[in-house]
Amino acid sequence: MASVLTCMDCGQQYPLDSVIFACGVCGGLLDVTHDLEALRTTVTRDLFDRRLGTLDAPYNSGVWRYKELINPDVDPSLVVSRPEGNTNVYATPRLADWAGVDTLFLKHEGENPTGSFKDRGMTGGVTQARALGMKRVACASTGNTSASLAAYAAFAGMEGIVLFQNKNIAVGKLSQAIAYGATCIAIAADFDRNLELVRELAAAFDIYVLNSVNPFRLEGQKSIMIEMLQQLRWNVPDWVVCPGGNLGNSAAFGKALYELYTLGLVNRMPRLAIIQAEGANPLYRSYQTGFEVYEPVHAHTIATAIKIGNPVSYPKAVRALRWTNGVVAEVSDQEIMEAKALIDRQGIGCEPASGCSLAGVRKLVDAGIIQRGDTVVGILTGHLLKDPDATIAYHRDALAGIHAVEPNRIFDAEPTLESLGAILSPSTLTHV
């Protein structure tokens, strides 16, 4: 049941052992195409359910539990896994009420080993790098990808190379890449130019690219949808809502849902809602034209994880939206940080980009697109500690152009019971 690489534009196919990141004929993006007809007789809900709770590698991973849909042909001994996945789905009735729906779940990908969903993609990409015999792997990054690449490269005994923009990188993310031993290079260019440079490096120095242009990355990220549906006992929600930056997750979600539906593991597909920041919204702008016009933007947003103006997975995200009858919305940095603060206050916590999911649900409810009775799953992409500076600055009401709604004040006190009592009186504690 050999899988192949297939150009999504012209259909040209390549063997999986090709070190290639775009179609050699037309330059289009590549998919890992599985033989779904052959898999139909072996891939079942029962197969995946039987693997739940196993201690046996690689199936103890929340990615490789679904190996037949990720990389069915790779030797299990080559799998590079920490393990990742197995992230929780939280019922959040108070947030559901705020957003205007009866049922809202949040799936928290910040619970992965390095604190973001990128670990799911990285196990897929680094495993393929090992299968190909590669020794060096590289990425351009706004932070999360670099942290994940550095960890998985170190775990696999490879050299990790990460290219950063030389400003506005969240210290929680940069510190991970440094700590895990990657070769870190700060460049006076934005993410989009750094991605171009990584692809040039790969061609010149036998380096394997691990940005989402790599289709094996997206195969790993598909497992977010598969695991979420398994956690919901294969009951399909009405909506899946996620942040949109480089659009790899959006692309992966669409492919996962299409394959699950084709294989009969689900009887319908949820609608996908991709939420972008107003300052980094090329997909939203294109959506407004029915995808007739696409123009990159110069990205700016407090949500550094999605501060991307020319997303490489744009064509695959459009395909995902068409498969799922999906929608695109934009939210302001004010809305992002307010939603993030509300998620944090539930004891769950997330990085700023994740706030797009909750803010987007409320906006789509207000627009009459999501209905109160719909079941919604929002995706939280990263851990609270990915960007602690933004969190503290928000609660100090110190972010330019953003107002803290009911901030959690930091109090100063003298070392006396009277001073503490003045702070802890009910009239002083106005936040919830």
Describe the protein's architecture and organization.
- The chain is an alpha/beta fold and 432 residues long.
- The chain has a domain at 89-115 and 218-393: Rossmann fold (3-Layer(aba) Sandwich), CATH 3.40.50.1100.
- Helices cover 38% and strands 15% of the residues.
- It has 17 helices and 13 strands.
- The protein has helices at residues 36-39, 45-51, 67-70, 93-99, 118-132, 144-156, 171-179, 191-205, 215-221, 223-231, 248-263, 282-288, 314-324, 333-345, 355-366, 388-395, 417-424, and strands spanning 4-7, 13-15, 30-33, 89-91, 103-108, 136-141, 159-165, 183-187, 208-209, 239-243, 271-277, 327-331, 375-380.
- It has a six-stranded mixed beta sheet, sandwiched between helices. Strands 8-7-6-9 form a four-stranded parallel beta sheet.
- Strand 7, helix 7 (171-179) and strand 8 (183-187) form a beta-alpha-beta unit.
- The longest helix is centred in the middle third of the chain and has 16 residues, at 248-263.
- It starts with a strand and ends in an 8-residue tail after the last helix.
- The model has no long low-confidence stretch (mean pLDDT 95).
